[in-house]
Amino acid sequence: MQLPDTEQIFKHCVHGIIGTDVDGKVTHVNDSARNIVKKSDRLVEGVSVLEVLPETGKLIFKVIEKRKPYFGYQVEGKEEHLIVSINVIQKDEKVIGTVCSFVDMKEFESVARNLDFIDLDDRKFETVFDVSFDGLWLIGSDGKVILINNAVEKSLGMKKSEVIGQHVQTFVKRGFYNMTLTEEVVRTRKKVSQLQTALMTKKQILCTGIPVLDKNGEVAMVVVNERDISRLIAIQQELDEVTREKERYKDELALLVMHELQENEVVAENHKMRSIMQTALKFAKMDASDILIQGESGTGKGLAAKFIHSCGKRSAKPFIQINCAAIPEAILEAELFGYDKGAFTGAKESGKPGLIELADEGTLFLDEIGELPPAGQAKLLKYLDDHQVMRIGGTTQRKVDCIIIAATNQDLEKLIEEKKFRADLYYRLNSLQLTIPPLRERPEDLFELTNQFLGKANEKFGTNNKINPMIIAMMQTYSFPGNVRELKNIINKGVVMSESEFIDRVVIECIGKDVMEEVAKASEQDSRIKSLDDIMAIFEKQIIKNAIAQYNSTRELAKYLNISQPTIVRKLKKYGLSTR
Ligand SMILES: Nc1ncnc2c1ncn2[C@@H]1O[C@H](COP(=O)(O)OP(=O)(O)OP(=O)(O)O)[C@@H](O)[C@H]1O
Question: N or C: the chain end with fewer CB closer than 10 Å?
Answer without folding.
Answer: N
